[in-house]
Design brief:
Layout (H helix, E strand, L loop, with lengths): L1 E5 L5 E3 L5 H7 L18 E6 L4 E3 H10 L5 E2 L9 E5 L25 E3 L1
Parallel strand pairs: 1-6
Antiparallel strand pairs: 1-2, 3-5, 3-6, 4-7
């Protein structure tokens, strides 16, 4: 188990290898994931305060570059492998949307090709 701290919430434990977006949502924390965790929409963005992994999927790297986003990560593409402290960027409560998005599967999609950050 690893410890996850989401800004504004109590720290919780998550299973090693769990997708960060699923860990956050499983603990009742409001986070968007409009594309269902497929690295297509960037709504599941988080900012790392501590514990940012030094690798990312090629899909995440490409999507962040396409959108010109820096200093954020896609929680659907991050595995819980070490303790982390993050800030959720997009929340359902402030979005005006009817739901957070499609279910994010347990495994990273698309199949990950790992690159250094």
């Amino acid at each position: 188990m690893v410890k996850i701290k989401v800004e504004g919430h109590e720290e919780f434990s998550a299973a090693i290898g769990m997708r960060l977006v699923n860990a956050i949502e499983a603990h009742g924390i409001d986070i968007l994931h409009r594309c269902g965790g497929n690295a297509r929409c960037t709504t599941c963005r988080v900012a790392f305060n501590a514990g940012e992994p030094d690798r990312m999927t090629a899909a995440e790297k490409a999507k962040l570059a396409e959108k010109g986003l820096t200093d954020v990560r896609l929680s659907c593409q991050v595995l819980c492998l070490e303790d982390m402290h993050v800030t959720v960027i997009n929340r359902l409560a402030s979005s005006g949307l009817p739901d957070p998005g499609g279910k994010c599967e347990a495994h990273i999609t698309p199949d990950p090709i790992w690159e250094t950050k």
